[in-house]
ComE operon protein 3
Amino acid sequence: MRTGMLALALGLLTLRFLPALPPVWLLLAMPVVALMLLPFRTYPLAFYLFGLTWACVSASSALDDRLAERLDGQTLWLEGRVVGLPQTIDGVVRFQLDDPVSRRARLPEQIRIGWYGGPPVNSGERWRLAVKLKRPSGLANPGAFDYQAWLLAQRIGATGTVVDGQLLEPAQDNWRDGIRQRLLSVDAQGREGGLAALVLGDDSGLSAADWQVLQDTGTVHLLVISGTHIGLLAGLLYGLVAGLARWGAWPPFLPWLPSACIAAFAGALAYGVLAGFEVPVQRAVTMLGLVLLWRLRFRHLGATWPLLLALNLVLLAEPLITLRPGFWLSFLAVAILMLIFSGRLGPWSWLQSWTRAQWLIAVGLLPVLLMLSLPVSLSGPAVNLLAVPWLSLLILPLALLGTALLAIPPLGEGLLWLAGGAMDGLFRWLTFMADLAPAWTGPHVPLWVWPLSLFGALLLLLPKGLPMRPLGWPLLLLCIFPPQKTVPVGQVEVLQLDVGQGLAILLRTRNHALLYDAGPRFGDFDIGERVVLPAIRRAGLKQLDTLLLSHADADHAGGAAAVRKGVPVARVLTGDVGRMPTELSAESCRNGETWTWDEVTFSTWIWEQADEGNQASCVLSVEANGERLLLTGDIDVAAERAMLDDGFNVSAHWLQSPHHGSRSSSSRGFLRAVGARGVLISRGRNNAFGHPHPLVMSRYTWSGMEIHDSAVLGAITVQLGAYEKALAERRTRRFWRD
């Protein structure tokens, strides 16, 4: 039976790694073949095929429910009811509509909406909205967070921005939103948002700085309701009943073990409903229920049985959950705990159990975190030793009890005030630890290293004295210090990152690195921090020799501060020094400056008579082994003409599209002088500026250029000096990508 359950789980998990879904005929054939194999000893293969078929059918259904391509970028009037807890962050109201309807088209069952400067929106309300709709999409960069996969895992078929709207029907029964408003209105010593996150799963009250502290210290799991919180509350209730029974205070006519299990499950279920009972909470409650059932009736089956059964139930309920990193981390953490506490020759003390559990979970999850391109907290194991009991034994009980007693304001608000103070103290300590040891983002790890590092982690989790265990250290360290791809002398690796409506291009020679522009920043959403800086670290770079900001506009220089803060920068150049923040200590780009790195020549040009920022863009020409690249920032036709009149050598094999393909740039004369065979366009999908302009696109085609558009292809890599074709991130096939 366990073999069949394992095979079923493997079939369901296979979905995550498919480049494309099987054709319909194969989906129909697989269950037929499985039924034929079922009576024989090959039944595990039958279970595998059943799991794979169900996962593919479920994924196909979610993909079919996405917004039609003809409606992408269109504005439609629609009606729908708000579900979940709306969030307001930096003046943007974000919420989700369930079963929206429109007279003009069929819409997906769920749409994620953003309303800039919109009015308060409450769960349960029904709205009529004019929404500019978009198909699910996101930035596509190597090793970065895949927003498109996250949307599919949530079964969100479209996103949209509200243009206008009116309330049709107020909320009928909005008890969760009412509790949230009550929590946010009490005095919790400045931590009202944190309590709302802990009690209801509403994380909109946590600032970007709070999230960074949690990430740096490996404590995100403390404020995101999942298995940790469900297990903590269930453990407290189970322990309370068990303690009363041990002290003789439990009614003798009630068996303590069934009562403890029922109390633990009922408390966890109630907490899950309070938190919205979303997929992570459903997973946690399912696992807890099976563990309690195993404790009560089926201990003879072994400890792996409830884990394997819970894994299958969760995957059968939602196969797309494998697209979410939290799924892998939660199940693997439980598996690691089961492994390290089983097969020991002697018992550990409670202190040994607690400290070794934190340490070994960190070791076991390290290669998985790097495989998922997630940051690794260096202080996490030590911090969690104190943070977990502080939250579980003090903050969580006070917060839940205070929320339950809000009907008695002096008592409920007093408990929440104490919980807020305890949480504020926790955050002060976490901030101190985060400053000492921020999270670490590992470099790119070759595919062949992963199985070796995973095997090394497994060896280190085994009991002491077993053969080959010391070999685990060098194998595990392979994922921390992996062999790095080197750039040949005389060549440049050019990576145009997918940053939406902006620009960021990373250039690496054998021993040097230059970043041309740093991407945009919109409020707390900093592309420099979220995309550019991780790309620099993933490339294994310890510093930037030059940060060249073409000009000071936010879509080019907005992420510069985060980059400067996150990695040492030897020199900052810009063509728009007058508008550049003083903390960047930028130098003015000079016309005709030339330097050589590893037999690669760099030259700059700037129009000294420029009237405004775009015209003042610092142009960079790069020549490697005779192959040339021209980076132009946002220059316009007048600047192009001035560059040609100055005699600057603009001929190039690759051209970065001036001003994202704006109509005011890319004149015919300029394109004729450049003579590029390929053009790199960096822009946001369905951007408000209409970039690139159709007239400019026709000029590129007329000039014989091969067009590489980040909105279509994602991040684009050119090996300058090798005379090779460009590589694109979206050409790496994933079944959820268009």
In short: The first strand starts at residue 75 and ends at 89. Residues 537 and 623 are 25 Å apart (CA to CA). The longest helix spans residues 409-436.
